[in-house]
Design goal:
Blueprint: H1 33-69, H2 82-112
Length: 113
């Protein structure tokens, strides 16, 4: 047992324990969940192309439309106004829908050799 812990110093936290000295300045612990979510979204976009893009855009449109009906007029999004965000998302959904036939033809050509 002593050999397993020989690399540990008196200030090394035990496995599975948080080291409070590395917490962000505001005191909230860093949760890298968003990084995992972003990676998963990127993977889905790579695999499913415009089909994934249109699915995510429609989900976002529904969320922003509901938030706007509930009174949200400004978003934390770079575009600011929820109206601008909805126009952006609808544009992306239309472009993704237009790209689907080209994406399907690309896969057919790729798989047919």
């Amino acid at each position: 047992m002593a050999e397993l812990a020989s690399h540990l110093t008196p200030t090394t936290p035990a496995l599975g324990q948080r080291d409070e000295r590395v917490a962000p300045p505001d005191g909230t612990p860093l949760d890298p969940l968003r990084l995992c979510v972003n990676t998963t979204v990127a993977l889905l976009a790579c695999v499913f192309g415009p089909i994934a893009l249109i699915a995510f855009a429609i989900t976002a449109i529904a969320g922003y439309a509901r938030a706007r009906r509930a009174g949200l007029m400004r978003s934390k999004c770079l575009l600011g106004s929820t109206r601008n965000v909805l126009v952006y998302l609808c544009s992306i959904a239309v472009l993704a829908a237009a790209a689907i036939p080209f994406w399907v033809m690309m896969w057919i050509r790729l798989l047919a050799g």
